[in-house]
């Protein structure tokens, strides 16, 4: 076994990893990457089919981002944001505000203040604390409450965990958490109100229901109002929930749900840690043209939240950095004399880090170029076409694509939708087989995620999907021809 692999097994504790299983084999040790390709210490090449856990936008070793970091590194790598400003963070804040307010139809509320932090969890933690204290200071709620979706995942800090509703992840920490409410998620494939029999298509396309899921949202808000304590904020991932199992929302659901929240005087927190920076494409967006498309998923349904939480792709997948955008009204609630202590008492040592901000500025410049937009639109079409080949597999129950990301749900039989149990390790087995075929991704239970970097070619996408198909056949004992 390679020395680096031995050191990893001896000293490193990996996130979301069953370490007993990890210690039974030699890990893949990544040494370098370029574009959509990763290379390990033995020289083997792999396609990065989940963009290095949903972070990498433009590919590894991108010359434009590399150059931006080198230029900044020649000046200074980091200085404190506590009482000091810096050039790249100031420029990035202005750029994010401009990008987050793209269209006259989205003028209200205007997002014009940026609080920088380190990752998706902290971006949500910032929004949660700001919404909580704003509700109290504005006299809206003495005990602010929060609503999020069934199956929600918003990070691993204590406040973000409290917003989550995945028992497997969060049950252990229940004694540390404050209570939040959950409302039904629009999981069309497994919705109890969907009367449609299984078909070989995305369940959103053939569902038969009466929007009962929206009725549940209204019930939650009405019940909370009767308690005399309206929700301070409604927290959601727009268009698709990631760690819940790549659960997409049918067109129109988000607008209906957030209109209900607005009608009850509730603030909106959009968790775009995964969905931001072009990941959701834009086929149903009136803002899309051949040379422009919405950068954020919220805007695809004409929605402007009160808090926009960003991370993952913010720096193009290079450095840990996050941002929480909010409004002037919320900012004003924290203004006062020094001795009033209205300060927002929250921060991080590496807030507004210059290297991260420089990478983010370069990434945004690439993202908004006509060449990148056209490439993403082509990648979205290519991914959609290749995914159709998987419908022939009896263990593929649902294929859910939103823009440049897809979730393929594995089942025992597509005609019955019978799920695999966790002990059967269906998703893990398929991903292990994909790695042997030179494609790296990571499952969410029995859902295989495909989320390639935007630079992935049609040939590379075809290889990713073909490896998935062959691995499903191998894992479940089918012919691999």
Give an account of the 3D structure.
With about 475 residues, the protein is of the alpha/beta class. It has two domains: about 5-60 and about 370-475, Alpha-Beta Complex (Aspartate Aminotransferase, domain 1), CATH 3.90.1150.10; about 75-370, Aspartate Aminotransferase, domain 2, CATH 3.40.640. The protein contains 16 helices and 18 strands. It has helices at about 5-10, 20, 50-55, 65-75, 85-100, 120-135, 160-165, 165-170, 205, 210-225, 255-265, 330, 355-365, 370-385, 425-435, 460-475, and strands spanning about 30-35, 35-40, 45-50, 110-115, 145-150, 180-185, 230-235, 240, 245-250, 265-270, 305-310, 320-325, 395-400, 405-415, 420, 440, 445, 445-450. A seven-stranded mixed beta sheet has the order 4-12-11-10-7-5-6, sandwiched between helices. Strands 13, 14, 15, 17 and 18 form a five-stranded antiparallel beta sheet that branches. The two termini are about 35 Å apart.
The total count of strands amounts to 18
Figure out the total of helices: 16
The oligomerization state is single chain
Broad structural category: alpha/beta
The CATH superfamily of the largest domain is: Type I PLP-dependent aspartate aminotransferase-like (Major domain)
- Across the major sheet, the strand order is 4-12-11-10-7-5-6
- CATH class type of the largest domain: Alpha Beta
The gyration radius over C-alpha positions equals 22 Å
Q: Span between N and C termini? A: 33 Å
